[in-house]
Amino acid sequence: MMTEQAPYRLNGSSVDRQFTRVTSVALTLGLVGLNWLATQRAAATMQYAAFLNGRIAAHVYQPFAWWWWQHRWPRSVLRIGNRILFVAPIWRACDHEVIYPMLVLGAIAALCGVFLMKPRHADLHGSASWADAAEMKRAGLL
If you average pLDDT over every residue of the chain, what do you get? Predict the structure, then answer.
């Protein structure tokens, strides 16, 4: 198996790698942030009930706690004090708060990637090409 060796390339980070790194971090932070927001809203709707797991401190919960709650009470009703609460609409709202913004952010990142990142052509056997008239004039050959 042959590997491509291009000693003229710098081993540092390219614009493509930086873009990929920044985009990955931004999408991850967006995912965590949106899940935290959905968790906090679900906990507030459930009046910060004592049986909700994932509490960090006071009324602050772990970002993905609503997933645990949804798994534990998928389509049931909860009794909180004297109140009966249907949880299916809460999970639907959490899904919408996380999924749709992440789809939009992902689509924006993909479009930016398509327009900003240059396609790479393998140059294992060289990258020479014929010069056009403008390149020959710049080189002083014409």
Answer: 83
CA–CA separation, 56 vs 108, rounded Å? 33
- The pLDDT score that the predictor gives to residue 126 is 60
Of 104, 126, 112, the closest CA to residue 16 belongs to: 112
Mean pLDDT of the region 13-19: 72
81 conformational bin, left if phi > 0, alpha if psi -120 to 50, beta if neither: left
List the helix and strand counts (H, then E) for the chain. Answer: 4, 4
Beta strands 60-61; 55-57: pairing state: antiparallel
**Contacts of residue 90, Cβ cutoff 8 Å, sequence gap at least 6:** 42, 45, 46
Cα 60 from chain centroid (whole Å): 23
Residue type at position 82: N
What is the extent of the structural domain holding 87?
29-117
The span from the CA of 90 to the CA of 87, in Å, is 5
For residue 141, tell me if it sits in a domain.
no
Question: Structural domain tally of the chain?
Answer: 1
